[in-house]
Amino acid sequence: MSDFLDFLRDNFEEFGAADAFEVFIIWFVFFWLLVLLRNTTAMAVVRGVFIVLIAAFALGRAFDLNVLNFLLRNSFLGLLIALPIIFQPEIRRALERVGRTGARAFGGALDYDVTLEALSGAVMDMADRRFGALVVMERETGLQDYIDTGIPVDAVPSPELLEGIFYPNSPLHDGAVILRGNRVVAAGCTLPLSDNTLPGELGTRHRAGLGITERTDAVSVVVSEETGRISVAAEGRIYTRLDEARLRGLLGRLLSARNGRER
Questions:
Q1: Cα gap 185→170, rounded to integer Å
Q2: Residue 246: which domain range?
Q3: Do 149 and 205 belong to one domain?
Q4: pLDDT digit string (tens) for 158-176?
């Protein structure tokens, strides 16, 4: 016991400010990764891997399993290679978040005043008329890969334009409209579907609207063709059964719009 205490005392005597800063950086990186993985399927994978490793380590020590102990001792390099593959979406999301923070620092925010006015009016009309619609608003994360899947538009948004695009059986009504600032840049775009399970009344259009927000920081607005209900998806979450006031308030907060009206 005294040898162990002497060992701890010797190490703490050599522990300086630089060492404390290094420990803090390592702790912060691990804490940040855990925050990113919270409430995701990746966290379940982390727990599963941790349980398997602990069980394998305990069995190897208890029954002196030489092969298993050898594999555990030499598995570190394999884990370093496997982690970026397994957690590729989470790592990409983390790097995008760092990039968005840098962009905000240089004042790259987009203005959505005109868009919010036109979009809210169009959405309410389409909800009343049961037009299915999916509109995505780009923020700091670029959506050019998804824009390229659609038809270029490059027009100022208006209720008439949006309702014309989503008119039933029109050539572009099944895809998504993507907005960049106060411009409609493309229509008929294809979006990734969410892997999450949604309530039964939310269909493929809602899965696409949610899926794009799980991969980017975009905001999407969905109008159900079956029920006329309005939903907004952002940051991997979906808000349903919105009326006009809640729609305007939620979009105003998400897009940080300053149009002189209190939301």
A1: 18
A2: 113-255
A3: yes
A4: 999 999 999 999 999 999 9
- Same domain flag for 138 and 204: yes
Residue 129 shares a structural domain with residue 196: yes
List CB contacts of 136: < 8 A, sequence separation 6 or more.
Answer: 143, 146, 176, 177, 178, 179, 189, 191, 209, 212, 218, 219, 220, 221
Give CA–CA dist 100/139, Å, rounded. 9
Q: What is the pLDDT of residues 39-61, one digit of tens each?
A: 555 677 777 888 888 998 899 88
CA distance 122 to 114: 12
Number of H helices, E strands in the chain: 11, 7
The H or E element containing residue 153 is: strand 151-155
Q: Answer whether 112's CB lies under 8 Å from 257's CB.
A: yes
Residue 151 dihedral angles phi and psi, to the nearest 5°: -105, 125
